[in-house]
Structure formats: structure tokens, C-alpha cells
Amino acid sequence: MPTTKEYLLNERMSSPSKRRDMDVMKLMMSDYTVEPINDGINEFNVEFHGPKESLYEGGVWKIHVELPDAYPYKSPSIGFLNKIYHPNVDEMSGSVCLDVINQSWSPMFDLLNVFEVFLPQLLLYPNPSDPLNGDAASLMMKDKKQYEEKVKEYCERYAKKENITNALSEDSNEDISEEDVSDAERISSDDNVAGDADP
Fold it and tell me: Are 168 and 86 in contact (CB under 8 A)?
């Protein structure tokens, strides 16, 4: 007969959708601000603060998280939405190069691990030998002081609370205006078709 711990672990692993729900709820009930996208739990943004005693301390980033259907058996997709200067984060896309997420993910990990362990470790211990941002990696290896200044400059320019709030507002405005343009084009093309049918 299984122990209570084994039973709970098996129950937790028995259904990916139950596990996904539970992991997202744990993240929402923690100290992180979680903003669902499209009222679902497969895609959301998380407010992430730079770890204490690091170059990134005081910085605030909006992290985009997408959970695949096979989560937790397949790793989440993680990306920074506002800019960060780091050898293992692509400056343009925000993609993260982190072995534990990209290669050695295990269903034993959960979303809290990502935000409480994996991302802080990434920021505390960059790996310039496996870069997504070649400029940051090169600068880190050649001139550590200048690299540190650049990290702090990016934190000042792009990683403040108002940056992530403004970025979301701009995204919302862009979405609305794109929809308005699409509606206007559709109405305009409908009018042209109706106009062509008249003699």
C-alpha cells in the first residue's frame, strides 16, 4: 500500500491538466504578480524582481510564460518581455538559454522553481560560454567593469516598475488599433463589393 506522500505524488502526476492548474495556482498564491493572457492558464505574464546582491537587484521584468499541453512533462517556454542585458538572454526576443528549462527539465520541477531558483541563478551566475547575447558575453569576458555598468544601465532604462506597466499599456493600445484597422479594412472591402454589384 502506498504511503500518503507517494499517493499524493502519483495523484499530482496523474493528470497534466490537474498539475498545470495546481502549479499556476501555487504561483498565483505566492508573492508573484501573475497576469493571465486570454483568460486561460496556459499563457500568462509574471512580474519578476532581480535577485538581491546581484547586478540586477532593483530591476523588475515581465516574464512571458507559455505552458505546453504536455506540461509538466514538457518544459514551459519562458521569455523576458522588457530588455535585459545578459549573456544568456536574447536581447531582441527575450528568449532564455537555461539548460534546466531547455534540456534537463523534469516533471518534478514546477513554476515556483522557475521563479525562485532557476531565473535567480541565471541572473546571479551568467554563462558567457553559452551565449544568446554574444555582445554581452564578449564584454563580460573582456571588460567585467564595463559589462557591469551596461547591466546597470539596462536595469535603469528598461527594468523599472513603470517600464513593465507602460509596455503592457502600449501592447493593449496596439492590439486595439490593429483590430480597429482590420475592422475598417473589412468594412471598406465589404462596401467595395456591394458597390461593384450595383449597376
Answer: no
Under DSSP, the state recorded for 199 is -
Q: Identify the three-state secondary structure at position 150.
A: helix
d(CA 47, CA 80): 10
pTM of the model: 0.75
Each residue's pLDDT, cut to its tens digit, for the chain (199 residues) gives 555 444 444 544 557 789 999 999 999 999 899 999 988 889 999 999 999 999 999 999 999 999 999 999 999 999 999 999 999 999 999 999 988 888 899 999 999 999 999 999 999 999 999 899 999 999 999 999 999 999 999 999 999 988 776 554 444 443 333 333 333 333 333 343 344 444 4
- Residue from 57, 106, 80 nearest 164 by CA: 80
Helix axes 16-29, 4-14, angle to 10 degrees: 100
d(CA 158, CA 173): 19
Q: Which residues are catalytic?
A: 97
Strand order across the beta sheet in which 77-80 lies: 34-36, 43-49, 60-66, 77-80
* Whether 135 contacts 84, CB under 8 Å: no
The whole-angstrom separation of Cα 164 and Cα 32 is 14
